[in-house]
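Hey,
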Amino acid sequence: MKKIMIVDDEKVSLMMTNHILSSEYQTVCASSGKEALELLKKHQIDMVLSDLRMPYMSGYELQEKLNVQSQSQIPFMFMTADKDEETESKSLATGASDFISKPFRADVLLSRVGKILQTAEQIHGLKKAATTDPMTGLLNKASAQEQISELCKKSQGVLMMIDLDSFKLVNDLYGHDMGDKILIRFSEIIQATVRSSDVVGRMGGDEFIAFCQNVQDEVVIEKKARFINKIILQSAKDFMGEDMNIPLGASLGCVFVPSEGSNFEELYKKADKALYDVKQNGKHGFKFFYGNQNVEFEESSVTNGLSGIKKILQERNIVSGALELPFSQFRLIYQFLYRLSLHNSKNVSVLLFTLEQKDSNEEAQKEFLEVLKASLRQSDVVSVFSKTQIIVLLSDMGEENISLVTDRVFDVWKENAWSASSSLSFENENLR
């Protein structure tokens, strides 16, 4: 039921107006502007009906103060015994929704109040439609960027870009209706991990954005990432069955605000870079962007010596499975290990996996890459060499164990939906 505040310094008029409106609405009565402002702190008001001329604070002044205090435009209707036409014109010019002269009939008052509330509801609906993503109910891209941009200017916290990993497979294998269900569930899970004061929006497709205020600890984000990944996989199996083997999960690219800046566009690019790194190194995790590493190096080398430099060199947020590198970086690792192998007896093996597909599809290679990384150790390194080939370095592994590794890779890949439309083979040699 809608709640209306009635403000009038004349007690008889206040009682009569309350008697009329309380038959259809909840009412809150105030005998002065000051009392009305105090009551607004305790009640969620849908509309104000106020006398125009009151001592100490006029209806005009009350309207202005109420809107400032509530930080929104509350529908306002003035009532007065003043017959001056200029009074009505001025009332409407201040933004009032309507004006009614005393004395008034009960049916006229109820009719006008009803129209004001109906119009306010329609406007609210239009505003919500303009700012909300219709599928998930989250803020849409434009509104999320606008609100988060303002928060970045004045608040501290974490800006996060969140992607639903391997979502395309849901649409391809189970249909778009199932895909919609998964997206809606994913948005609910994200909302469940943040507070009501935080901002969450959908950027489009399977990409989401969030700003968590007053968070300055990676551990907090780590827990959120773990929760999201756990629940989305459980939910997917609830929807599609326990035999569902799509590697659904979430990748989070994060940046601290304001330590990495306060400009939204720059922060967004940094979070996007961190997200890309997660995608390239196993997905289903999180990573923070740290853009001032050169500065950190100079300061640490002076103040902390070698220990400070080691902190900068160390990999953050180490995920399970093999390390994925671009081929240019993989080549440097290869050259270093080759040099090392010239002076010690440790075995390093090189494997080349070839994935031939009936229909060329980058998604199949991405899925195999994830299977491969998950089947290997953290001390192993992988890199995409071509559209059909992935190269691997296995450190400190004897010939007798390589077959165990490759068998495991083949067994896991057979369970993947893409394996039916592809053929997998491999070659193996020692580094030297």
